[in-house]
UniProtKB/TrEMBL annotation:
Protein name, UniProt field: Peroxisomal acyl-coenzyme A oxidase 1
Biological source species: Characodon lateralis
Pathway(s) served: Lipid metabolism; peroxisomal fatty acid beta-oxidation
Claim: Oxidoreductase is one of the keywords in the record: yes
Domain Acyl-CoA oxidase C-terminal: 4-171
Keywords assigned: Oxidoreductase
Length: 175
């Protein structure tokens, strides 16, 4: 990951140098290289988060918590690679088959994390109202809340939605 960051920083630096050689002002050179600079910045931030996350994992003694958080850290790192796979491919750090394998591995990691998702979300202390989801409820009454949410939905205010009468029924009469 660090190599990709270095590669993107190098690309951004070369872009600025090229703009300066074209007799652009330093401000214009910087602005014209903004896309490369943002990509390098995003990659650097992702790298730092992964690095710090892994350093903090060393201090966790509870093996169950360490296992879940290690899986989460790996998922975050791999998500960053797939999200920016073009940059990793361009830098020659991964091959297309490796990118495809990472996608498969991400699905495996998601399956491993699934039993701990509610606990992970709860650990961030994000309130149900902010989550705005019937699935991640703190009280665990998922089905009751799903039923209540569906009952209150404007789509269920009438037996047959008005869009049927407006769009589908006229088409049906032409058949």
């Amino acid at each position: 990951m660090c190599m990709c960051v270095c590669s993107l920083v190098e690309i951004a630096a070369k872009s600025i140098q090229l703009e300066l050689q074209r007799r652009k002002s330093p401000e214009d050179a910087w602005n014209n290289s903004a896309i490369d600079l943002v990509k390098a910045s995003d990659a650097h931030c992702h790298y730092v988060v992964v690095k710090v996350f892994n350093e903090k994992l060393k201090g966790i003694g509870d093996t169950a918590i360490h296992s879940v958080l290690s899986t989460l850290a790996l998922l975050y790192a791999m998500h960053g690679i797939t999200k920016n796979s073009g940059d990793f491919l361009q830098a020659g750090l991964v091959s297309v088959p490796q990118v495809l394998q990472i996608s498969v591995r991400i699905k495996e990691l998601l399956s491993q994390l699934r039993p701990n998702v509610v606990a992970l979300v709860d650990a961030f202390d994000i309130h149900d109202k902010k989550l705005n989801s019937v699935l991640g409820r703190y009280d665990g009454n998922v089905y009751e809340h799903m039923f209540e949410w569906a009952r209150r939905s404007p789509l269920n205010a009438t037996e047959v939605h008005e869009s049927f009468h407006k769009y589908l029924k006229p088409l049906q009469s032409k058949l």
